[in-house]
């Protein structure tokens, strides 16, 4: 059911389409990715000046995840900060779930493990629950705004 019909509906759709254009998305994404890249550079610089070892792959993944969350959900995801425990749990579950999916291609027994809920498939179920809980919490938070 539409709230308006005919010419009025067409006009509303035309106005809304400008908000979701490729250019608007590209411009917003660029701002978000640049801001998170600056945070990443600060982390790397801090580690370099203090002669501290870092896991660059992990930091790059966190930076990408933070950017995608801001662009996709319109909310900050402090994955570059170790102080956000819920964000850390989500990131870890997300990474571990990706590893589990990878192993499907090289582990011929993955279907048996899934059926028996053992090994990597048991871990995958736990990780998916963490991811689902996080996303549902985020949806509730966004709906409350």
TrEMBL record:
GO terms for molecular function: heme binding; iron ion binding; monooxygenase activity; oxidoreductase activity, acting on paired donors, with incorporation or reduction of molecular oxygen. The lineage of its organism: Eukaryota, Viridiplantae, Streptophyta, Embryophyta, Tracheophyta. This is Uncharacterized protein. GO terms for biological process: secondary metabolite biosynthetic process. Pfam families: p450. Keywords: Iron, Metal-binding, Oxidoreductase. The keyword Secreted does not apply. It comes from Kingdonia uniflora. Belongs to the cytochrome P450 family. The keyword Transcription regulation does not apply. PANTHER family: CYTOCHROME P450.
